[in-house]
Structure formats: structure tokens, C-alpha cells
């Protein structure tokens, strides 16, 4: 008989057991220690054990679902009117037995009872309370299409695609071969700075990144000292174990509007790749929304290739049953 209950403090080893069985694809971090659960999930200020439901067959853990709130408009606080089913896992031997459907229902009921009127599945910026650092790759892309069971399962339960993020990677073990006639002028005009990213922006970003220490690569104008372009990178340690090579993830790229269309973004990315290659990284990943065609063109021009895509989904309210006192 399958039983369900909320998270308890001694559950991380069980979560790791389910995780490494259920999430065996390219886009999930390989969890090597239960401490990862504390770092990336239980340490969140809005973490609620009732939002983390585990399924058991006797004493054997066979699945779980993790839910959380979305972000408000300026990323300064959570917004519980938006609820996100962030992760849903069932080990391979127990699939197609109704466990996933029951876990999803319990996630939906939890979110609705805590004020959610919009229900999403798949954590994607800005509504990504969990998954960064352990699922999805360099950022939070929603559920990956390489996890082939996700889309048909969610669509069966009334969810429709609500946003797509494309995942690009570049291998850098070999020659980089990035040439541009503008680079010579840019080298004379700008200084490359590599500094710790001590301020991450919004409260929501601070929560996502936790104890992670990203690095900023910045191009400063030699005459004015003003930063004109910047890119933020982090070491994807858990994914490095999965991909068998050190990996780095690009979080964002900014070019001052007055300096755009002059090759500055391409030059900065080329310098980043050169530095990471010298530090013996093997893969660099970036995620870009499908609507951002200029960024897609930029990263393709320096050798990045598509390897996956992620989607977030929104449920059609007609698929939701009325809540009653027994929906716990």
C-alpha cells in the first residue's frame, strides 16, 4: 500500500535515493550527499515541510513532490497567489501506478489552500522557488523536454505550455576559434575585470543562490572606468559529476545600451570562454528564452549549440476539482 506524508528532518537520504533513480537524465544534478537537500531546498526561508510530500511503499521511498510560491513583481518577496509544482519524481519501477497523479493532486491542494489562484508546473524565472542548483542546468528552465515523461503527464492533467527556455552548451576542451575583426579595437578600449559577485540583485535572487559564490566578468572602459558589459558565471558542481567534466553556467549577460551592436557582448563571452578553458572547465551552459533572438544569435556565433529545452506549464482551472475538508 502506498502512503503519503510531509517531509521530516530525517528524510534527506530517502530523497537522494528517489532523486538519483528518477532523475537520471542530462539535466539533473547527481546528488552525492543528503546535505544537498538542506542547501538547495530546506534552507529556503519559505520552505514548508507540508509542501514536500513523500510517497512510500512500506518503508521504501518511491516518490516525492515539491511545491512553493512564486515571486512578486519586483522580486522582493514571495507571492502565494502563484503556486508552483517545482519537482515531481517517481522511481522507475513504480511509474504508471497512479503515484505521480496523487502527488500532483496533493501539490495542487497544498498550493490552493495557501492562497494560490494560478497553478504552474515547472520552476522558471521569475517563479522558481526551488530547483536552481540541482535540476535544469545553469538556471531554472522549467521541466526539461529531455525528461520525456513530463510533458504528456502534465498535459493529461490539464496543464498547457506557458513559456519555453532553450538550453545551449559549448564544449571548450579544444581550440575555441572565435574571431572577429572588432576584437583588436575592443582590447585597446576595455579592461577585463574578474571579481566576486557580492551583490546579486533582488531578494529573490539572493534566496535562489544561497551560499553559492558566482563570479562576474566585466569590461570596464579604460578612459572612464565605467563598466560597459558584464556576465555572471557559477560553477555547476553537481552537474559536473553527471557530465564527467567540470561545468560552468552563465546566469546573465548585460551590455550597456550605448555600447551595443559593436561586438562587446561577443568579445566578453570569448574572453570568458578563454579563461574557463585555462581553468580546465570542459562545458559552459547558458539558457535563453525562445523570444530572445538577439541573445540566441550571439551565443550561436561563439559556438554554443542547443542541447535541450525547458517549459513551464499552467493548469486549466476546469481540470481542478473543488476543494473540500478531506483534501489534505
Automatic annotation (TrEMBL):
It comes from the Bacteria. GO terms for molecular function: acyltransferase activity, transferring groups other than amino-acyl groups. Pfam families: Acetyltransf_1. Coiled coil: none annotated. The keyword Acyltransferase applies. CDD domains: NAT_SF (cd04301). InterPro entries: Acyl_CoA_acyltransferase, Bact_Acetyltransf, GNAT_dom. Residues 2-179, 176-326 form the N-acetyltransferase domain. Signal peptide: none annotated. Gene3D superfamilies: 3.40.630.30. The keyword Acyltransferase applies. Keywords: Acyltransferase, Transferase. This is N-acetyltransferase domain-containing protein.
Amino acid at each position: 500500500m502506498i502512503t503519503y506524508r510531509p517531509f521530516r528532518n530525517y528524510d534527506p537520504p530517502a530523497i537522494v535515493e528517489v532523486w538519483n533513480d528518477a532523475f537520471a537524465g542530462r539535466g539533473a544534478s547527481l546528488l552525492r550527499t543528503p546535505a544537498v537537500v538542506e542547501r538547495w531546498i530546506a534552507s529556503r526561508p519559505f520552505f514548508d515541510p507540508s509542501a514536500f510530500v513523500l510517497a512510500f511503499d512500506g518503508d521504501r521511498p518511491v516518490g516525492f513532490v515539491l511545491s512553493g510560491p512564486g515571486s512578486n513583481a519586483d522580486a522582493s518577496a514571495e507571492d502565494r497567489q502563484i503556486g508552483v509544482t517545482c519537482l515531481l519524481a517517481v522511481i522507475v519501477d513504480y511509474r504508471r501506478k497512479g503515484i505521480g497523479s496523487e502527488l500532483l493532486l496533493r501539490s495542487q491542494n497544498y498550493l490552493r489552500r495557501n492562497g494560490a489562484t494560478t497553478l504552474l508546473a515547472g520552476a522558471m524565472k521569475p517563479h522558481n522557488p526551488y530547483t536552481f542548483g540541482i535540476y535544469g542546468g545553469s538556471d531554472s528552465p522549467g521541466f526539461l523536454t529531455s525528461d520525456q515523461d513530463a510533458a504528456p503527464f502534465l498535459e493529461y492533467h490539464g496543464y498547457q505550455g506557458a513559456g519555453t527556455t532553450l538550453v545551449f552548451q559549448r564544449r571548450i576542451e579544444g581550440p575555441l576559434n572565435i574571431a572577429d575583426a572588432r576584437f583588436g579595437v575592443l582590447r585597446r578600449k576595455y579592461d577585463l575585470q574578474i571579481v566576486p559577485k557580492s551583490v546579486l540583485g533582488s531578494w529573490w535572487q539572493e534566496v535562489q543562490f544561497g551560499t553559492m559564490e558566482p563570479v562576474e566578468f566585466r569590461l570596464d572602459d579604460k578612459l572612464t572606468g565605467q563598466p560597459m558589459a558584464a556576465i555572471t558565471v557559477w560553477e555547476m558542481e553537481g552537474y559536473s559529476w553527471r557530465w564527467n567534466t567540470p561545468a560552468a553556467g552563465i546566469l546573465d549577460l548585460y551590455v550597456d545600451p550605448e555600447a551595443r551592436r559593436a561586438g562587446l557582448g561577443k568579445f566578453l563571452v570569448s574572453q570568458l570562454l578563454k579563461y574557463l578553458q585555462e581553468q580546465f572547465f570542459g562545458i559552459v551552459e547558458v539558457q535563453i528564452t525562445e523570444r530572445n533572438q538577439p541573445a540566441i544569435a550571439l551565443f550561436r556565433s561563439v559556438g554554443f549549440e542547443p542541447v535541450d529545452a525547458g517549459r513551464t506549464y499552467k493548469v486549466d482551472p476546469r481540470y481542478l476539482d473543488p476543494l473540500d475538508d478531506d483534501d489534505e
